[in-house]
């Protein structure tokens, strides 16, 4: 991520079908012994859906059609986690 970028998004857990909000909530109350198993069983990812600043410049006032392209541009060379 370039310096001065502020990204808005959220943690999600992908399963077969829709996002698994229950699995994400389980992590909030998991103890030290159960958390590693939950992590390996269903890894979480961060989904970015908006860019609030780029290179230290506030992007919130840009029209949505312009701002919508920013996450795609920033992530053009990213690779999925392994």
Break the fold down into its secondary structure elements and pairings.
Layout lengths: L5 E8 L7 H9 L5 H7 L2 E11 L2 E2 L5 H4 L1 H6 L8
Antiparallel strand pairs: 1-2, 2-3
Give an overview in words.
- This protein has 82 residues and is α+β, with helices and mostly antiparallel strands.
- It has a single domain, classed as DNA ligase/mRNA capping enzyme (D-amino Acid Aminotransferase, Chain A, domain 1).
- 32% of the residues lie in helices and 26% in strands.
- It is built from 4 helices and 3 strands, in the order βααββαα.
- It has helices at 21-29, 35-41, 64-67, 69-74; strands spanning 6-13, 44-54, 57-58.
- Strands 1-2-3 form a 3-stranded antiparallel β-sheet.
- A hairpin with a 2-residue loop joins β2 and β3 (57-58).
């Amino acid at each position: 991520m370039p310096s001065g970028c502020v990204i808005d998004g959220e943690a999600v857990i992908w399963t077969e079908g829709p996002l698994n909000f229950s699995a994400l909530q389980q992590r909030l109350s998991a103890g030290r012994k159960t958390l590693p198993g939950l992590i390996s069983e269903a890894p979480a990812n961060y989904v970015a859906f908006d860019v609030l600043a780029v290179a230290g410049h506030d992007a919130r006032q840009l029209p949505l059609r312009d701002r919508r392209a920013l996450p795609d541009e920033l992530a053009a060379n990213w690779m999925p986690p392994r």
